[in-house]
Amino acid sequence: MNWTQIPLGPLQTNAYVLMNEKKEAVIFDPGGNGPEFIKWLNDQQISPLAILLTHAHFDHIGAVDEVRDAFNCPVYIHEAEKDWLSDAAKNGSGRFLGNASITARAADEIIQEEKTIQLGSFSFDILYTPGHSPGSVSYYSATGGVVFSGDALFKQSIGRTDLPGGDHNLLLESIHSKLLELPEETIVASGHGPVTTIGEEMDGNPFLSGF
C-alpha cells in the first residue's frame, strides 16, 4: 500500500491517492484540476473505489463531481456538512471566489458517527475532528501508518478557525483527544503543505503547547 500527494485546485490543496498492489485506490479531497487529475489516474491505470472528504471547503471539493462521474465511485462526507457541497456560501467559494463559485452534487454516503469503514482492501478509522469546520473528519489507516487529517493539523501549525463554524478551542481539543492519541510514528498527511508525524507535532508544534 502506498500513497501519492498531488496539490490541486485554486489553493493547491493536497489531494491524496492511497493505492494497493492491484491499483485500486481511495482518493482524499480532490480539490480541482479535474481533467488533468483524471488523466493522471487513467495513465497510471488506477481504479478509484471512493472519494473521502475530510471536509467541504471549496478548495477540497473542486473536482469531486468530475472524478465521481469518471470512475463511478461514491463520495463520503460528514453529516454536519452534507449541504455544504451544493452551497457556495457555506463552502466558502462564494466569499473567496465570487462569481467563480465551486459546488458539487450531494454526497453518496453520509458519515454520522466515528466508526471503521472498509473499502475493498482499505480500512479506515473515521475520527471526528471538528474545529476548523463543523464536519471535519480525519481518516486513520493503521496498516498504512498514516492519518489523512485535512485542515485540522499541519506541520508546525493547525487549521484556521476564523471561517464560519470554526472553533479554536474545539480544534485544539480534537487534535489532542483524537490525533495525538495515535502512535507517534503515524504520518500526518495534511490538506496543505508537507507531511509530518504525530511525534514531531507533539514535540514541536507551537500551537499545541500549553493546552
UniProtKB/TrEMBL annotation:
Domain Metallo-beta-lactamase: residue ranges: 12-192
Keywords: Hydrolase, Metal-binding, Zinc
Record carries keyword Cell inner membrane: no
GO molecular function: hydrolase activity; metal ion binding
Entry protein name: Metallo-beta-lactamase domain-containing protein
Organism: Alkalihalophilus marmarensis DSM 21297
Pfam short name (any one): Lactamase_B
Keyword Zinc: yes
SUPFAM superfamilies for this protein: Metallo-hydrolase/oxidoreductase
Superkingdom field: Bacteria
PANTHER family: HYDROXYACYLGLUTATHIONE HYDROLASE GLOC (PTHR46233:SF3)
Cofactor dependence: Zn(2+)
